[in-house]
Amino acid sequence: MIKIGFIGYGSMGSMIINRLLSKKALNEDQIIISTRTKSKLGSLKKEYPQIEITDNNQYLSSKCEKIFLFVGTSTVKEVIEDIMVNISGESHIIYIAAALTIENVESIFKGKITKFIPSLTSEVAEGISLICHNEKVTKNEAEFVNNLFNSISTVKIIEEDDFEIGSDLTSCSPAFIAKIFMEFAKKGAKNSNISRKEAEDMVIKTFYGTAKLLHDENMSFEELISRVATKGGITEEGVKVLDKSLPPIFDELFKTTQIKYEIIKEELNKEYNTN
Ligand SMILES: NC(=O)c1ccc[n+]([C@@H]2O[C@H](COP(=O)([O-])OP(=O)(O)OC[C@H]3O[C@@H](n4cnc5c(N)ncnc54)[C@H](OP(=O)(O)O)[C@@H]3O)[C@@H](O)[C@H]2O)c1
Fold first, then answer.
1. Contact at 8 Å (CB) between 239 and 225?
2. Site to substitute for ligand 1 among 17, 34, 70, 164, most atoms within 8 A of C-beta
3. Helix (H, G, I), strand (E, B) or coil at 47
4. What is the span of the domain harbouring residue 244?
5. Shared domain check, 221 and 204
């Protein structure tokens, strides 16, 4: 039986594999997981005894055609080079490092490649997974990957050139959103008798309700704002402050993350001998 292989069981790998199994998107006897510290797979193996676990990437690659790489960006090259002995034209490598280009990976593996950017929100089967396949990936193979990640998120297929801003919007953004609302709650607590914990709870529940209104009721941002910020009211004054302060903040945020992407991409291009 040809199995599906996952290499790397860290923060992202463990989250994705556990969600895929709990959603029954994959059967436990279908998969092999390889990770550097095999003992970290102990509790998963207890829960799913039919999963095969190893710390030998070459062994995994000898049993699999679809190989998901969930190792850190700087480890992808050494892992692919290590498993090259077993991979063929039928092999399909799926990786999750945003700054690593498909061209980088193609410089060492000329076959089927998918770049996939997960989001921590898949932990609750929400959010967006960004996906881009190279031209060697067939329609069926692309569908397999897209369906897999549709079970734990909404899959969005985008051009590789848009992955950086796209990743900011979907994969980095849970941290950006948490930071924005943490500061909002902090200042609310500071200017009242409400404790920080209570303020955070108030903000989280309101944020959850706001997301539901926008999503479930298909309400636009503009409509929601106009329904709360009545003309001449208090909310309108607060919105004016945000109107003035937020655009330059987000300009700077995107500029800064782009600079960081460029630095990492330059290092990766040197490592992979690509431009
Ligand atoms: N965090 C996010 O929200 C997010 C979102 C999208 C994409 N990503 C990308 O996801 C990738 C992984 O990030 P992460 O946060 O999950 O990293 P991580 O927690 O460091 O996990 C990496 C895993 O790979 C294992 N590993 C390292 N070298 C290995 C090897 N040679 N063979 C097999 N396994 C090996 C590590 O083993 P040990 O347990 O022994 O260390 C660890 O389990 C990164 O490229 C990151 O940019 C992250």
1. yes
2. 70
3. helix
4. 166-269
5. yes
- Mean per-residue pLDDT, 145-157: 97
Quickly state the pLDDT bin for 14 (edges 50, 70, 90). Answer: very high
- Tell which atom from ligand 1 comes closest to the C-alpha of 15: 16
> Are 150 and 212 part of one and the same domain?
no
**Whole-number Å distance between alpha carbons of 98 and 171:** 9
Give me the pLDDT at residue 220, please. 98
On whether the pTM is more than 0.85, the answer is yes
Distance CA 184, CA 209 (A): 16
> 88 and 54 in one domain?
yes
CB 119 within 8 A of CB 134: no
In a domain? residue 68: yes
CA of 240 to the centre of ligand 1 (A): 42
Which of 6, 9, 12, 152, when mutated, tests ligand 1's pocket best, judged by the most ligand atoms within 8 Å of its CB? 12
Q: What is the C-alpha to C-alpha distance for residues 157 and 154, in angstroms, rounded to an integer?
A: 10
What CATH number does residue 73 fall under? 3.40.50.720
